[in-house]
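thread: overnight batch results

M.L. [08:02]
morning all. the overnight job finished for the chain we discussed friday. pasting input first so we're all looking at the same thing
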Amino acid sequence: MKKTRHRFVNILFAVCISTLIAGFAIPATAAEPIKQQGLVDQARVTFENFMTDKNQAWLKENLNQAKGLIIIPSLLKAGFVIGGSGGSGVLIAKNDKTGQWSQPAFYTLGSGTLGFQIGAEAAEVIMMVRTQKAVDKLLTSSFKLGGDTSVAVGPVGTGVKSNVVADILSFTRTKGAYAGVSLEGSVFNTKDKWNEAYYGKAVSPVDIIVKRSVTNPNSAELIKAVTQSVSATSKEPSPPTKERYHLVRSGDTLYGIAKQNSISVDELCRLNNITKTDPIHPGQKLMVVPSN
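M.L. [08:03]
and the structure it wrote out:
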């Protein structure tokens, strides 16, 4: 009986060792294409979330301005006293001649910040790349936002207009302790091993974005979602608006007129080339909506 039990233990030990050795023998990249595809699928879901979010109307209506999109499904920002943010995402870029979007290239985004920060937040992020200079910077192995390539927070809300001039506009959907996510100073790094795993060979962002020498058919749904949204934007331009004026009545104030017409006092003054201290009088016409 003891011999039988001893033999059983030896066999079980041998099986465990063999299994362990076999596990070590599996290439480290074997599971990475699954992770990559998961990130691509998450990027598509994130993009679709933005397209159905009324607060992201400006992004949806101006997609045709984008030369590229960086989609980060989950940017984690957390900290106590010293905080930071980080996440993985994909870059796709548009060919200006054909209008076709590239296959995704994989990146990490990380930053460190100092200050009294308590809490944690996960944010969905889409960054609209608006200039060729910014696209070219992203094709390098490491790229810091800011400096000679500007980044700004994109306009959020319904009916908003923006004259923001920046190489990259960032848009976030957040929940948690932080009001927003500042990406100034953040650093992009290419995920070379992930790119290699996804496309089956060593490739650079230039190979993926510019030369387009590799493809993975499993990215088709992401590309389709972006292409359809951009096409809809191009085919449905905003209808032209006509100038609209407010006829000043007795007792009217600049503040009251601005509030009544859903604009700021500063915008009202700018439209009419006046200052906040200038008097207004009954019968005066003030522009409240400019033509486009």
